[in-house]
C-alpha cells in the first residue's frame, strides 16, 4: 500500500511541530485561527514561525525551549508552520511588517505591537544558547 505524499509530509513534520507544542505553544493552523488569536492577544505574545530547515531544528526550536525556562515569559505562545500551514503563515506575517517573510523567525508582541523580531539570518549562524539569550533579554524588557 502506497502512502500519499501529504500523509508522508504530515508524519515527517509532526515531531517538528511537537517540539514546540510540548512547550505549551499553541499552533495556529488556519488564517481564521490567526485572526482569532493574534489581534486579540493582550499582554505579551510570542509567535514562532516554524520550519523544516536545519536552523529551525538546531537553533530556533531549541533556543525557544531554553528561553521559555526563563523566569519572565510571554503571556501568549503561538506558532505557525511555514511551508505546511501556508495560509496561516501568510496571515501571521501580515503582523510582522516591516520585516520580509523569513523562516524560521520569532516575533514578540506587546499589547498587539511588534516589539522584537528575530529573522532567519539572525538564527542560522548563531547557537540555540545565543537565541535563548536574545529572547530572554527581550522577555526581561517587555514581559511583566
From TrEMBL:
It holds the Pfam family Disulph_isomer. Belongs to the bacilliredoxin family. NCBIfam families: YphP_YqiW. This is UPF0403 protein YphP. It comes from Saccharibacillus endophyticus.
